Amino acid sequence: MTTSATTESRVQPDSGGGRRRAQRPRRRWGRIVLLSLLVLLLAAGGTGYWLYSDLNGNIDGVDLDKALGEDRPEKLPTSGQNLLVLGSDSRAGANASLGTGKVSGARSDTALVVHIPEGRDQAVAVSIPRDTLVTRPECAKSDGSTLPAAERVMFNSVYSTAGPACVVKTVEKMSGVRMDHYMEIDFAGFKGLVDAIGGVTVTVDEPIKDTSSGLDLSAGTHKLDGTDSLAFVRTRHGIGDGSDLGRIGLQQQFMIALLSEVKRQDLFGSPTKTYKIADTLTSALTTDAELASLTSLAKFARSMNGVDPATMETIMLPVAYDKVDPNRVVAAQPQAEQLWKAIRSDAEIPESAKKSPATGG
Questions:
Q1: Which residues pair with 140 in a beta bridge?
Q2: Which of 34, 41, 163, 310 has the fewest Cβ atoms within 10 Å of its own Cβ atom?
Q3: Which of these ranges, 86-100, 132-146, 246-260, 267-281, has the smallest mean pLDDT?
Q4: DSSP class of residue 26?
Q5: Which among 151, 174, 181, 193 is positioned nearest to 86, based on CA atoms?
């Protein structure tokens, strides 16, 4: 599924299963977090150390180097960077009241590998379908015990089984690509962000009705609040073939609309609103230990200033329907390996690596 990159993005079918290069600026989800924090520092710098301390204390950090050890892919031979961005579907805490179902634990509802090549003037984000069957490597659990390796497990179950470090390890094993950084935001943080900016406008060409997510939209333009936005990015039964692949298209569409709204608003002119957004984000944000401070996040954001949003491309990991269980997908070869090889070598991704046999209808 593919969408246009206008402010009010439209859902359109794409037999290639990926995303075409945009004609207008497009930015990735992780950049929302980083640039919002940078704006906060610029707008509120000098207003009081307690603001910095309060927001800084909100961020949770994961020590990936300690959890993963030395058995990892080599770093890129260039100055390129790779960032794993997860949307967590935990039903705990503030997330329990969001109508997301009564499922124990948490899963990685959305997963993006964001690659920023050397020079940092462009970027590509690869969506990994949550229903992808993967080989989970041996991982250390939070209680100190060891989780043995397993084959044919659903990608989104790795998070609930062994936590974020194991998700990073799984992605690194399946791709051969080293993740330099990790970033995660949960349901409550996503809803809070949308409400903090006053809603997000989307346009759909066909009605979407999904009793599972609660989404009921007529064809046309709608301004969604946080609750409806959450239903929009989570819906799967009301679009395409009802699989996770169709939902990826909606998620990509919504990210563009959200970024367009953030860009449209004058955050510099409203330090109070900026603080509210930053407080919401940092309260729901988990990063790798290296990024787990406002100073580090701002520094990383500044290093991304050269990225031209007009060259940003979002594609889906090429997948095929599993021959044993058609409700699941597996990485399609040779397309998937072509994709990961290009990222490993900081090279341009070939068109053949963007075509997915399974498209989600």
A1: 146
A2: 310
A3: 86-100
A4: -
A5: 181
Residue type at position 160 = S
Cβ partners under 8 Å of residue 132, min gap 6: 154, 155, 317, 319, 328, 329, 330, 331
Q: What H or E segment, with its residue span, contains residue 340?
A: helix 335-344
Lookup result for tokens 């390890």:
169
Centroid of chain to Cα 78: 24
User: Among all chains, which residue has been given the structure tokens 């069957």?
Assistant: 133
Residue with tokens 């307690």: 50
- Stretch 335-358: mean pLDDT: 93
Comparing 23-32, 61-70, 139-148, 181-190, the range with the smallest average pLDDT is: 23-32
Strand, coil or helix: what is 39? helix
Strands 329-331 and 215-217: unpaired
Q: Specify the pTM.
A: 0.76
Instruction: State the Cα–Cα distance between residues 91 and 186, nearest whole angstrom.
Output: 9
Helix 226-234 × helix 187-196 angle, to 10°: 130
